[in-house]
Every structure is written in structure tokens, then in C-alpha cells.
Amino acid sequence: MIPPAYSREEACGLWVFLEQEGGRLESVALELLGKGTGLADRRKVPLTALLLGQEVEAAAREAIFYGADHVLVADHPLLAVYTTDAYTNVAARIVLDRKPETLLLGATPNGRDLAGRLAVRLRTGLTAACTALTLESGTGLLLGEVTGFGGGVLASIKCPAHRPQMATVRPGIFPLVDPDLTRRGRVESVPVELAVGEIRTEVLERGRHEGVDITRAKV
Q1: Pairing between β-strand 142-148 and β-strand 153-157 as defined by DSSP bridges
Q2: 52: β partners
Q3: What are phi and psi of 106, to 5 degrees?
Q4: Burial class (CB in 10 A: 0-12, 13-18, 19+), 55
Q5: Which of 24, 45, 185, 212 has the fewest CB atoms below 10 angstroms from its CB?
Q6: pTM
Q7: What is the DSSP string of the chain?
Q8: Distances (CA, A) of 111 to 65, 104, 197
């Protein structure tokens, strides 16, 4: 068996990766904050949000309103636009340094890309495209529920040995909670060591269609 990057005894805390674009948090990030609050309360740990980007201070404050107790902000010009190498390198270094017990991400194109890369880099498991998240009675292990074959198969998956426990969640699965503008939390800037030579891709142009968000549609 491949040895874990760090042990269960070293691991502590529940983290949510905050996907953003142009400094605006994606809806799935807000949904995960709402769900993560309940899971963190059951584990009696603070809810930590990991935010990568450039000039994302407003997004960090918004995350606190939606349930984060602590926001780790990695701010760097090379993180302004998502690239696999930059985000994987920075996120992996922060995770290995802080050693969270659980890391949740959105099952978006960027979220799926980052989650798979991180799972390999961190030598841990990943439950992909979950439709429900619960904690196992007695052990407190994260249980990720995954459906297949049009709902004909329902699997509950856990990661008992390696850390962090990782899962991606489909957008629109969890309800969007109302923000509490009176909440207080801590925003911490973390140092970023990132060079142009670490990034093998270059984003030449991006376009975003502003319209109906089909991930929020009931049908």
C-alpha cells in the first residue's frame, strides 16, 4: 500500500476549496460552505476555506458570511486564472503544511481537474461527484454517497487510512444558505512560492457567458 503523505494522528480540520472566477465565488463554493458548517460542527472543528486567486479579499470576507471560520488566502498574479500546474502546486504545498483531515471541492471542470491532481500528489483517496456527505457513526469518517447507472447503484465510500479525506460534490446538490453579515472570522494570507517555469500552459483568452445557471435548474 502506498504510504500516506501524513498520518491520521497529524490531521485536523475540515477544509473547503473555494472556486472563484474574477474574484467572484462560484455557487458550488457557497453550497459547500453551508454543508461544511454542519459537518465541522459535528466534528467540533473550525471550518477552513482555501482560496486561491489574485485580489480576492472581498471573496474571502464573503466566505465568512457563508460559514467559514478561517479563510486561507493564496494571492498571486499567476493564480488570477486557473491553470492546473499553478493551482495544484500551491494547494498541495498548503495542504501538506497545514494537514487538514478533510478537503471538499466542487465537481466543476476546474474542481474535478484540481481534485484528481491533488489526490495523486497527496497520495490519498478521492470520492468523486458525490450526491451526499455524512459522517460515519462512531468513527467520524467522511462518507461520500455516489450514484451510478441512472440511480440503480448507490455506493457509500470512505477513506479510513489516508489523509486528507477528499470528495468532490456536484453543483446544486446542497441548498444555498443565507449569508450572515454579522459573522466574524479570520482571513489569513499565506505565502506563495510560484514561478512562471512551473506552469506549462498559458491562457491566451477567456470568455464567460452570462445567462441562466443551469446547475441551479430543477430540471
Answers
A1: antiparallel
A2: 74
A3: -80, 145
A4: exposed
A5: 212
A6: 0.92
A7: -PPPSS-TTT---EEEEE-EETTEE-HHHHHHHHHHHHHHHHHT--EEEEEEESS-HHHHHHHHHTT-SEEEEEE-GGGSS--HHHHHHHHHHHHHHH--SEEEEE-SHHHHHHHHHHHHHHT--EEEEESEEEE-TTT--EEEEEEEGGGTEEEEE--SSSSSEEEEE-TTSSPPPPP-TT---EEEE------GGG------------S--GGG---
A8: 22, 10, 23
Report residue 117 as a C-alpha cell.
491532481
Which set of grid coordinates corresponds to residue 161? 487510512
pLDDT digits (tens, 9 = 90+) for 177-197: 999 999 999 999 999 988 888
Residue type at position 175: P
Task: Give the model's confidence band at 215: pLDDT under 50 very low, under 70 low, under 90 confident, else very high.
Answer: low
Q: Cα(32)–Cα(57) distance, rounded to whole angstroms?
A: 19
